[in-house]
TrEMBL record:
One of its GO terms (cellular component) is extracellular space. It comes from the Eukaryota. Signal peptide: none annotated. This is Macrophage migration inhibitory factor homolog. It holds the Pfam family MIF. GO terms for molecular function: phenylpyruvate tautomerase activity. Belongs to the MIF family.
Amino acid sequence: MPCLNISTNVNLDGVDTSAFLSEASSQVAKIIKKPESYVMIVLKGSVPISFGGTEQPAAYGELVSIGGLSSDVNKKLSSAIATILESKLLVPKSRFFLKFFDVKASYLNF
């Protein structure tokens, strides 16, 4: 199950979070090549974040997946998520960091 967890200092009041979640879910599934029914997206807003010494709009994300990740896939995911953050939350692509975790199924509790 891929899980994308995004934290941003942007206030989400008045933001169409459903559009963000839907687009992020679709892109993660498509790029990792996993069924969207397995994808989880978590979006947290109004998180105190300083990036580059300023509190201008920024975001931090972690993506955990059981397989499906590689250098090429990670680049595509970073680009796609950065584009969604910029279009939906006005977070510049240069103020976003995404960390990847490719885990083995044996590390998870099912």
